[in-house]
Structures are given as structure tokens and as C-alpha cells.
Amino acid sequence: MADLIVANAYVVSMNAKRQIFSDGAIAIQGNKIVAVGPTAAVRAKHKAAHVIDGSGMMALPGLIDGHLHPNQYLSNGIGDDTDIMSWLYKRIYPYEAVLTPEDAYLSALGGFVEAIRYGTTSFNDPGGIHADAMAQAAVDIGIRGIMTRSTRDIHDPIAPLPKSLIETTDQNLERGEAFVKKWHKAADDRIRAWFSLRYVYNISDRLASGIGKLARKHKVGVHAHAAAVKGENEAIQKMFGKRSLERYYDLGLFGPNLYLVHMGWPNAREITWLADNGCKVAHCPGASMFGAYGVFGNRMMPKMAEAGVTISLGTDSASASGNLDMIRVMYLAACGHKDIYNDATLWGAYKALEMATIDGAKALLWDDAIGSLEVGKKADVTLVDMAGIEFANHPGRHPVRSLVYSATGKSVDTVIVDGRVLLRRGTLVTIDEADVKRRLKAASQAWRKRAGLKLPPPWPVIRG
Questions:
Q1: Tens digit of pLDDT for each residue in 7-18?
Q2: Which domains does the chain have, with CATH numbers?
Q3: Which of 268, 168, 281, 275 is nearest to 224 (CA)?
């Protein structure tokens, strides 16, 4: 007896054969999938008290946001039309300095609401302030994810950090390990914990090597921003005598658990190191275009994929990219490299969906449990309503291509995580969304006042 069956759906399994069942069903017992296949076959073997009619729906493995800063949701808007270094050191870090645990909880909650609404079931957080509060928000709303605790132990007087954001090397290591011990495999393994190397400019050699040793000890990942923007390698070379990735390589960080984000500026030798050591990469096309990181223009992402590097997709944050819509992210990943390479066959919709599901799961070291709809895996399912005009059956347009090229997260109808329905018919069922919106508005005004941040609109706004 199953607990829940999704029937009559267009099921995109993302299994090893990439099978699609045009009239498919998924049977769920507890938090696991117990059957996937044609509706008639599944329903002949499984009964359930609760059946979701998936007619006219596409059923996907839950989308995986491979790089998401939950603590930045309250900062949405302060990164608009600003270069990355100004955004980081003049806006985001001052924002983080005035953030309270209550703010961090609410920020994460708001971000998770938007992510779930748009079909995301899992995320990977690269490190933020008040990580315990954010992890609790993930537990409370029901999403799956990896949390890390932010790490910074040095800074350059030319680009200073607020004092509250700096900890000693020993504090970073001790508190980071305590966080992993507390949260790894919490909430019935729905929450996992990794270590963070927040950004190369603010990480000492001792902290980097220490984090690597702790991650190997606890058998978890290391989430690190590196080779992200033009000029970074040159600046790091002046500081440490080596390029960003060269430094981490020499410090012994490279391995299957090293997870590197943005990565627009590796060189050929470094790409070989990444592939040979099984390192993972997170591609955030929206953030790169929004902040002009140069990831597309420098053409390294397809080269890393060709070398065999596993690449996930991420939104980064609402502040860094403007939205948490992984379907929009898939569109950018599917199309952006085509234009740069002048090759319409490069990547495309099916590759983008792989990156947002099974490849994302591999990158998160979690593909034994998520990333595809298969028997024995966790019941993380996203249902997309195909009734809209964007899914009209135009000649030659496969539904997966309609999803990536024509739809947005607003087409998402239902989201299931760990066998639990979080979103049904576009409505959050685990939380009061209207209340979250009210609290977000008040908290956003409050932190701006505390930080003294004023960002007048470029055009005059007449009130009254």
C-alpha cells in the first residue's frame, strides 16, 4: 500500500536511460519512490489513499539549486546594476553585518518560499551569517538542502570587511566543525552540512587547508567561490603568489568533494586538475549575466563539461540574479553558450535539465537518493502544468524543450519533498505565505535603516 500516487502524468524520469513515460505514474511510500512507469502498470500493483491526478502535467525530479545564498533574500535589489566587487564589499557584506538571527531565519524562509514555488526541492548553500537560523528555516518549511557556515579570517585594508564578519582561523575551524556535527543528516537526512570557503580574498592558507582536512574527516563537501571574475586570479597571485585554483590545488583541497562556484576563469591546466580529481562545479548563468562575471564570455564552462567535470546549475541569490527560478536558469544555460560559440547545437534543453536534476545531485554528492525518479530514491517531485499556451503542441516541440525554452517557474503546480506535499495547485501548504511577505517587508525596511543604506531610484518617482 503506497501513501501517495501521482498518476496520468508525462513523467520525465532522468534515469540512466532517460526514459519518459507519456502516461506515467509515481508511487510513493513514506519518503521514498516505490514504483515508476506507465500509469496502468503502476496502479495495477499499488493502491494509495491519496492520488494526485497528473493529467496535463509534466512530472520531474525536484529541481536542484546548486548554489543558493538563503541569507541574501532580504537584500534583494541592492545588487542591481552594480559591479561584483562593489556589490560584495559596499553592499552585501555591510548588509550581512547588521543581519540578526531572526532576519536570517526570515530571509531564508522567504527564499525557500520562492524556490519551492518555482519547483526547487533541494539547494546548496555556500555559507552565510547565522547559519543555524537558516538551517532551522529549511527544517520548518520542508525543503531539502545542504547548509554551510560562512568562513572569513583575513581581509585587505583596501577592501575591508565589517569586524563582525571576521573570525580567527581557529574560530572558523572550530565553529565550522561544530555546525557540521549538529546539522549533517538532520531532519531524517533532509538537511546536510558541508564546510565553506566563502571567497578566496578572505581565506588564509591555514584556513583553506584546515577546512579541507575537516571535510575529509567528516566525509562532506567544501563549497567555495573561486576563479569567479576577471582580475581575481591576478589579485590573488599578488596576495599569495599563486592563482586561486593553483593555491587550493597546492593546499590539497582538490578531490571529489570540492565544489567550486562560478568558475569563469580557470585555465587549461586547472581544468585538467578539476577533471582528474573529480571536482564539481556550479554554474550560475543568471548571476554571471546580472553581475557581468564573464563566465559566458570566457568560454570555460563547455570546456569543463567536455573534460568530464560534473556541473550543476544555481540561481546564486535573489540579490545576485534577481530571481530564484531554476527554469529561467535552465533557459540561460541551454542558450547562452550557443551564442558565444556560434553553435546552435551546443548544450540545449535536455542538457540543461540534466544539470538541474541528476548532474546537480551528483555534484551535491547525493545522487544515490535524489536527482531522478527511480525506485528507492527519495520522493522529491515537481509537477509542471502544461495547460498554458507555452506548452501548446507546436510541430517538433517536445515537452522538455517547451519547459526549458518557453516556460517559467510560474508553470509549477505541485512540489513534493521527501514524500510530503509542500506546494499544491500553486499554494504553499506548510507555511503562511502572506504572513512571510508581511514580515519580509518590515524586516527589509528595518535592516536598511540600521545599515544606513540608501539606494534612490535612477528615475524620479512621484508619490501621491
A1: 999 999 999 999
A2: 2-61+375-426 (2.30.40.10), 63-363 (3.20.20.140)
A3: 281
